[in-house]
Amino acid sequence: MAITAAMVKELRELSGAGMMDCKKALNETNGDMEAAMEFLRKNGQAKAEKKAGRIAAEGLCRIAVKGDTSAAVVEVNSETDFVAKNESFQEFVAAVAEQAVNTDAADIDAFMAEAWNADPAKTVKEALVEKIATIGENLNIRRFEKVTAEHGCVVSYIHGGGRIGVIVEADTDVVNDAVKECLSNVAMQVAALAPKYVATADVPEEYKEHEKEILMAQAQNDPKNANKPANIIEKMISGRLAKELKEVCLLEQAYVKDGDLTVAKYVEQVAKENGAALSIKKFVRFETGEGLEKKVDDFAAEVAAQVGL
Fold first, then answer.
1. What average pLDDT does this structure show over 19-48?
2. Which pLDDT value is given to residue 90?
3. CB count, 10 Å around CB of 122?
4. How far apart are alpha carbons 268 and 186 in whole angstroms?
5. Is residue 183 pLDDT above 70, yes or no?
6. Residue 229: CA atoms inside 13 Å, Cβ hemisphere, count?
7. What is the three-class DSSP state of 65?
8. 219, pLDDT greater than 60
9. Is 279:267 a contact under the CB 8 Å cutoff?
């Protein structure tokens, strides 16, 4: 297929690779954006952490908690940052979070169809439509997740005034201020370093194999490795994969408040000090606009179109 400048520009923004590299990748993959990203990664021209979806939409994340054992995080999007700072919008998002912490809905469709807690005569969807009419801007209740601890507690953390919302669930037989402070610190870690999994044991084999394939392709495309035996390259790949897993697994990450400890060692230390059987079971991390692309208006083009140019 014909490769357009817009396609090259999009791939460049997604990957961080050079313009000509992006053009070559698209030509090699017949314009398939996902395959082109894979091509760039295998050739070491795109960073692994770049995602095919930019964090750009406006809105807020909010968390509601119920005691020590239940919490829910929601993301509600708006068109502009101006509306996201609006008090009426913020109150609405807080109400959506309260709705979520009390819901039994399993998905967003069921959630939108249930009675609105603030006025049971309408549904959540109808409350949203009403708020859209009041504010005069399109809004969207994008997602929610409720976490209930069966054998411990949950803690929450909001970063950047609502840009990031984190819930951490722990199994623990001791729930005191020290344990809660520990979990709050872990939640801050999740907000800051965005791990994908709790521990290495949670990483799917397909993820490991996929990343190993990428690392192998990078190594084979590096001229410095041209004369290295296959077993040496294999060891290199294993080492790089182990390093990557430490970055994406919460418990293996270096603890941000004390680089001499991993998160696992920090939790173990707090558990010992409090005589607790404490372990991190789960975390949820929402970032506003994650995977969405912000609409960018070209004002000059809009004016030109209106005047017929």
1. 81
2. 96
3. 14
4. 12
5. yes
6. 3
7. strand
8. yes
9. yes
C-alpha span between 282 and 284 (Å, rounded): 7
* Helix axes 124-135 and 87-101, enclosed angle (nearest 10): 170
Q: Give 22's pLDDT tier (boundaries 50, 70, 90).
A: confident
Of 160, 152, 158, the C-alpha closest to 180 is 152
Question: pTM for this one?
Answer: 0.73
Q: Which two tokens stand for residue 250?
A: 């919460």
Residue for token digits 């014909």? 2
Angle among Cα 241, 216, 27 to the nearest 5 degrees reads 125
100: which 2 tokens? 């979520």
List, in sequence order, the alpha helices (H) in 33-86. 33-42, 81-84
Amino acid letter for position 2: A
Please enumerate, as own/partner, the contacts of 103-106 that have beta carbons within 8 Å and a separation of 24 or more.
103/72, 103/144, 103/146
pLDDT tops 60 at residue 47: no
* Helical (H) or strand (E) element with 211: helix 205-220
Residue 179 to residue 153: CA distance in whole angstroms: 10
8 A C-beta contact, residue 134 and residue 144: no
pLDDT tens digits for range 50-98:
433 333 378 999 999 999 999 999 999 998 888 889 999 999 999 999 9
Q: Could you give the CA distance from residue 65 to residue 26 in angstroms, rounded to a whole number?
A: 47
Number of separate helices (H) and strands (E) present in the chain: 12, 8
